[in-house]
Write a structure and sequence with these properties.
The complex is a heterodimer. Chain A has 8 helices and 19 strands. Chain A is α+β, with helices and mostly antiparallel strands. Chain A has 2 domains: 227 residues, P-loop containing nucleotide triphosphate hydrolases (Rossmann fold, 3-Layer(aba) Sandwich); 100 residues, no CATH class. Chain A has a 6-stranded mixed β-sheet, sandwiched between helices. In chain A, strand 1 and strand 2 form a beta hairpin. In chain B, 77% of the residues lie in helices and 1% in strands. Chain B has one domain: Orthogonal Bundle (MetI-like fold). Chain B is mainly alpha-helical. Chain B has a two-stranded parallel sheet. At the A-B interface, strand 6 and helix 4 of A face helix 1, helix 18 and helix 19 of B.
Chain lengths: 341, 532
């Protein structure tokens, strides 16, 4: 394995008495996009700001192969770290045109060379024709593309994206995500994307790091994380999940969807069964009561109640819809995960 | 632990700004402290205060209360009404009135008083009206010249209120008037209170108008104790009473303002178009205060200026006024900017000196002057003892003392606008420029100055206008034979030579009006820098 581009070890950060980061470990690989996914208040933005050098850690260390960026004794200011940052609000300088904004960080160039380089980057984000527009004359998406050009132009080793798409409307967001991912891949710059949008993280990143309450819950490729969450929190962060809690007996859980093996958990312990709605099969039977059906175009979401009163959701194809108000739910053992917390 | 980590994380604090902020705090508070010390320890003229207490003091106190209450009531009515009209309705000329209604702040109350008293004397052209004099006359003069404080703050408050609030009240069956009284007005109450506190502070600080109209307040008492009885200590004792009132008013203003600020974001204004009849009434409502505060008294003074011998020394005193006002304005803007920077970058450690400097606003001119005399007198006697009198009258009775007193009072007036101007720049812009490798100098020159210069200029101009208008501190501290426009106008007016007083008064207003127009236009401009 190659050496990571950036390592964070046991990062701690306090705001007043409140612990925002409580011991975070993280390795960013060379190249590719890593997404830091978590609800608001999980500490993901603080971690990004600490990596950028806009906050200083209260404990732990941030380092790159070439040296330590931040620990109790050493500190590299943000402008010497060689990272780019795209802010949630874009943070374009309102009194400068798009090209002036883009040229702002090109300190090693002067005059025409500087302008030309800025124009090249504006062209790469498809905004060469808007070079002389002021930020307020640009649409939200255009502003964010200029912000991206401004961050990428100085050739950073790593670009940090702080929820850059969250203030845009949906169709624009999808568009910008795709073009950003393409641009990053083409320029070979590694990126760390902070987001609270699971869909965005799964679409853009090769690796997702799940954060909650100042800790990393789980990290891995999107598919593995989605299919094999290691906790209820991790499961919920990536999308809807049926979660059923019970006590392990005879090496398994006797759930409404059947007996599921739990070989690693001793009898008598509490455990949680997790299964995604689209992996929940609906068949004939009469143990579950159908409560609502919501038509979602290609699929129908069903909400049902099990005999023990627990709620179960299933996503099924419209043609597989049961006729009656009662149905049987089940899941293949390979789609079910049992976790202890 | 936490404290140490905060210290450590406080990176890149430019020490110059903190030094200046602490200096500003010293300039603002030393005179106030000196007044307190002097009031407690100084030995006054024999029996002066006792004599005063049994003769004039009750009258001063009564006049102070009556004048302040009248001024506040009038300003509340005018300011709130106009604030709502401008914020919530649409009529021809609205966008001009929006800033023009702030212009009376350029008019010193004493000049309005000269004009109005002369107009309404039995022999004057408006002799049929009751003569504008006494406590109610002074109160009315303050109401029409100071209402813009209430107007500006309530206009802002009405703009911040979501327009749907009143619509919701109407939809629930309330009439327009009832919706205004039960929804819009209560929500604007903190802003009204803050504006009224400013009106009362200014009225409390006034000397020229109340003495001209024969309603001497405590401020007049301070000047008389100093100039008549020659007792600085007695002046300080009276000054302490003024400071006590002023501190109550400042606290009120601060509280009102912070509550007003939390009352929501400015939304897209949703204005009701007025029909022709209502629009005409609205225009009259907007013209009336301008007529009362500016046009009528200025026209009367202009008539006098044309019909009498011009005053001597108008040219010299203009130069004196302009240079004093300009120097003080620049220094105040520098202090204000430094304080704003200290607040922006220094966190809680810088907040203390800055908040202390803001206290200076509680020192009306006469109080500041007494304090400055006390501070400089102590310094002077120390110098004399140490150097054997080779620095005769170096400190007291110089222009330096004047600027000191002005800064005591007005540096605070610059801190607020500077802080607001810098505060509108989102911190993410600082961070973006830092990441792009820009140091503090480049950040200031390329980011902060272009974005905040309007607000900083406005801060300087506010101080410029205030110093032009200032009378009592100048009376106490001016060097021998050194006149400003305000002093010349006042001296002639108090000799009943209004003809000679008119020209310096007109020149003063002519200097103040354009500056105030710039400030007013700046004040009504949208406040937020839109990043998105």
């Amino acid at each position: 394995m190659t050496r990571p581009l950036l390592s964070v070890r046991d990062a701690r950060f306090l705001r007043g008495r409140r612990e925002i980061l409580s011991g975070v470990d993280l390795d960013l690989p060379q190249g590719g996009i890593v997404a830091l996914l978590g609800p608001s208040g999980s500490g993901k933005t603080t971690l990004l700001r600490a990596i950028a050098g806009l906050e200083r850690l209260d404990g732990g260390e941030i380092s790159t192969p070439s040296g330590i960026l931040d620990n109790q004794t050493a500190w590299v200011p943000p402008n010497r770290r060689g990272f780019g940052l795209v802010f949630q609000d874009g943070a374009l300088f309102p009194h400068m045109t798009a090209v002036m904004n883009t040229a702002f960080g090109l300190n090693h160039l002067a005059g025409k060379a500087r302008r030309d380089e800025a124009m090249i980057w504006l062209d790469r984000v498809g905004l060469a024709h808007r070079a002389h527009a002021y930020p307020h004359e640009l649409s939200g998406g255009e502003q964010q593309r200029v912000a991206l050009a401004r961050a990428l132009a100085p050739g950073p080793r790593l670009i940090l994206l702080d929820e850059p798409f969250s203030s845009l409307d949906r169709s624009l967001r999808d568009d910008l995500r795709r073009s950003t991912a393409k641009l990053l891949a083409a320029s070979g710059i590694s990126a760390l994307l902070v987001t609270h949008d699971a869909e965005e993280a799964m679409e853009m990143a090769e690796t997702i790091i799940l954060m909650q309450e100042g800790r990393i819950v789980q990290a891995g490729p999107p598919e593995a994380l989605y299919a094999r969450p290691n906790s209820r929190a991790a499961a919920r962060l990536l999308g809807p999940a049926n979660i059923w809690t019970g006590t392990v007996r005879e090496g398994g859980l006797d759930s409404p969807i059947g007996h599921v093996e739990a070989p690693d958990i001793p009898d008598g312990e509490t455990a949680h069964l997790i299964v995604r709605p689209e992996r929940t099969r609906v068949g004939s039977g009469d143990t579950f009561t159908l409560v609502t059906r919501t038509f979602r175009g290609g699929a129908v979401d069903l909400v049902t109640f099990a005999p023990d009163g627990s709620e179960w959701c299933a996503r099924v194809a419209p043609d597989g819809l049961p006729e009656s108000e009662r149905a049987g739910l089940s899941a293949s053992p390979s789609d079910v995960v049992i976790v202890r917390d | 632990m936490a404290v140490i980590s905060v210290w450590r994380r406080r990176v890149g604090l430019p020490p110059v700004s903190v030094i200046l902020a602490v200096t500003a705090a010293g300039v603002a508070t030393l005179p106030l402290l000196a007044v307190l010390v002097l009031a407690v320890t100084g030995s006054g003229a024999d029996g002066y205060l006792q004599h005063l207490a049994s003769t004039r003091l009750p009258g001063y106190a009564a006049n102070t209360v009556l004048v302040l209450v009248t001024a506040a009531a009038g300003a509340a009515l005018i300011g709130t009404g106009l604030g709502w009209l401008i914020a919530r309705t649409r009529f021809p000329g609205r966008s001009i009135f929006e800033w023009a209604l702030a212009l009376p702040l350029a008019m010193p109350a004493y000049i309005a008083a000269y004009g109005w008293l002369d107009l309404t004397l039995a022999a004057g052209p408006l002799g049929a009206l009751p003569t504008v004099r006494g406590w109610w006359g002074a109160g009315v003069i303050f109401a029409v010249t100071l209402y813009p404080y209430v107007y500006l703050l309530t206009r802002d408050a009405f703009l911040r209120q979501p327009p749907h609030l009143e619509e919701a009240a109407r939809a629930l069956g309330r009439s327009g008037a009832s919706a205004f009284l039960t929804i819009a007005l209560p929500a604007a109450r903190p802003a009204i209170a803050a504006g009224l506190a400013l009106v009362a502070m200014e009225a409390l600080a006034d000397y020229g108008a109340v003495i001209h109209l024969g309603a001497p307040t405590l401020t007049v008492g301070v000047l008389r104790a100093w100039s008549g009885a020659g007792s600085l200590a007695d002046a300080a004792r009276l000054a302490v009473m003024i400071v006590a009132i002023a501190l109550v008013l400042t606290t009120l203003e601060r509280a009102g303002r912070s509550r007003a600020r939390t009352a929501g974001q400015r939304s897209q204004p949703n204005r009701t178009a007025l029909g022709p009849g209502a629009a005409l009434l609205a225009i009259i409502a907007c013209l009336t205060p301008l007529l009362l505060a500016l046009v009528a008294p200025l026209a009367r003074l202009a008539w006098h200026a044309l019909h009498s011998e011009p005053a001597r020394n108008v040219w010299n005193s203009s130069l004196n006024s302009i240079s004093l006002a300009a120097v003080t304005a620049c220094l105040a803007a520098l202090f204000g900017l430094a304080s704003a920077y200290a607040l922006r970058s220094g966190g809680r450690f810088a907040a203390f000196p800055v908040r202390t400097a803001m206290l200076g606003y509680a020192a009306p001119g006469a109080v500041a002057a007494v304090g400055v005399l006390a501070v400089l007198g102590t310094l002077q006697s120390g110098l004399d003892r140490a150097a054997g009198g080779i620095f005769p009258v170096l400190l007291t009775g110089t222009v330096l003392a004047l600027v000191f007193a002005y800064l005591t009072r007005f540096a605070a007036a610059a801190i607020g606008p500077c802080e607001a101007a810098l505060g509108r720049i989102p911190p993410s812009l600082d961070e973006a420029s830092h990441l792009a490798g820009a140091g503090p100098v480049r950040r200031f020159v390329q980011i902060h100055w272009p974005l905040a210069s309007g607000g900083i200029l406005a801060a300087a101009l506010i101080v410029f206008v205030e110093v032009l208008k200032e009378l009592p501190a100048t009376m106490i501290l001016r060097p021998f034979n050194f006149d400003t426009l305000a002093v010349v106008a006042h001296n002639y007016a108090s000799d009943e030579r209004l003809g000679q007083s008119a020209l310096p008064a007109l020149v003063l207003v002519a200097l103040a009006l354009p500056a105030m127009a710039i400030v007013a236009r700046q004040a009504i401009a949208p406040k937020r820098i839109e990043v998105r």
